[in-house]
Recover the amino acids of this structure.
């Protein structure tokens, strides 16, 4: 009986160790697909937003004022910037690459550097 309990405790501890070591890394690597520089051009207006990963959260730095915003993950390529109430959705192409970021449902930012896609 003692051997069974020891094996059970060992298995539980091994699973807990696995989850704490590898799950944050998996979540972080999934978020890296959204990182990059996104550009918006409307007439003479040109701006970029650099999306990067810090502390397992996506953050965006605005080119026009240097302000940084933090994204909260909602699921299915959707995020929210809580401090502003802005809905963010990342759009993927046929090859499953993130190519655009939509802000508030209609403001489209195009990801730079994807084989001809700016």
């Amino acid at each position: 009986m003692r051997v069974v309990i020891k094996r059970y405790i060992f298995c539980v501890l091994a699973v807990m160790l696995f989850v704490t070591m590898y799950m944050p890394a998996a979540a972080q690597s999934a978020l890296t697909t959204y990182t990059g520089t996104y550009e918006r051009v409307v007439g003479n207006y040109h701006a970029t937003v650099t999306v990067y990963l810090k502390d397992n959260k996506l953050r965006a730095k605005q080119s026009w004022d240097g302000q940084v915003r933090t994204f909260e993950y909602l699921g299915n390529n959707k995020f929210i910037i809580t401090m502003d109430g802005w809905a963010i959705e990342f759009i993927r192409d046929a090859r499953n690459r993130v190519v655009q970021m939509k802000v508030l449902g209609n403001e489209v930012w195009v990801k730079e550097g994807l084989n001809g896609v700016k």
